[in-house]
Amino acid sequence: MTAFTITRRRLMQSAMIGLVCHRAWAGSRCGEPQTPDNNQPLGPFNAASTAEEVTAGLDLTGKTALVTGCSSGLGLETMRVLALRGAHVIGTARTQEKANDACQTVSGKTTPISLELTEFDSIRECASIVKSFDTPIDILVCNAGVMAIKELRIVNGVEMQFAVNHLGHFMLVNLLTDTVTRAKNGRIVILSSCAHHGAAPHGIDFDNLDGSKSYSPWDAYRRSKLANGLHAMELARRLKSTSATANAVHPGTIKTDLWRHLDRPAPDGKMNKSIPQGAATQCYVGAHPIPAGISGQYFADCNPVIANPIMYDKKMAKRLWVISEELCT
Ligand SMILES: NC(=O)c1ccc[n+]([C@@H]2O[C@H](COP(=O)([O-])OP(=O)(O)OC[C@H]3O[C@@H](n4cnc5c(N)ncnc54)[C@H](OP(=O)(O)O)[C@@H]3O)[C@@H](O)[C@H]2O)c1
Q: How many angstroms separate the CA atoms of 79 and 126, rounded?
């Protein structure tokens, strides 16, 4: 064997490894691969699939979904597609007017409700309206969110991104858990993000939840998204004796209003999905038969993937749960 053939073979091997790595990294702009978890049932969809594609052929008639943050981006698309497949979708937005406007753009059965996640009274009022319908919630999508707010803002004793992304949803889910467990296979889908990787290795800064010791717009976002993941994992453990499931989702990197707090417009080169593709994973986890029994997983590109180990930290998740309960009362 000549030196040339060895070099050539090595080159070919490197190219193959490069290709495999590229596939594993495709779909991620967070600097972390979205590696499918082969211990879980994998579906036929991928990063390019759209919300309509992952729900094609599904009849959601008779099912009720609740989608927070229905007034724009991924929430609006999720509401549109679930309603298109026959579900009755309760769409929440920060004001009744915004919720009405969003629901009016969608065909199918929708009910607009106002939900301001920084206001406990608004969360209680929203939950009480939903409960008054006396209908089980089959799909609860905790989708609303804010990202990288420049200046420190404190609401309900905590920093704003933690308040909106995690605490408000934590309270809403607690108030609605019994309506989800009443459904045949109720599913709670919590929007996290691959940004959670950036919160490792320290995780939730329990001694600085109000940001008064230090505040960084991106670190606060990363921790709030880790909190979303920890919440989903702990919720799944607590729902174990029921037929309901809870999972976390990374939707992709998508140009939406989420980027509004940045000084510059969202960088096109960093986006890897359209809005219909971005809404696909949450629609898949919420409605498709394949993940019906999957709970306590982190999904991206329409499959369970391996999260940063910190998302599986049971001690941190339990502590977050206890502190969140205290903060909501
Ligand atoms: N886009 C991405 O690249 C990306 C990546 C990873 C994860 N995610 C996650 O995906 C989810 C959806 O984001 P998106 O990209 O669709 O963003 P978006 O277009 O900005 O939508 C966010 C929604 O949340 C609502 N919202 C914001 N603050 C709220 C509050 N205090 N109370 C109630 N609702 C509030 C917004 O309402 P207003 O418009 O009235 O403020 C809007 O309807 C978020 O949880 C985000 O963290 C997105």
A: 17
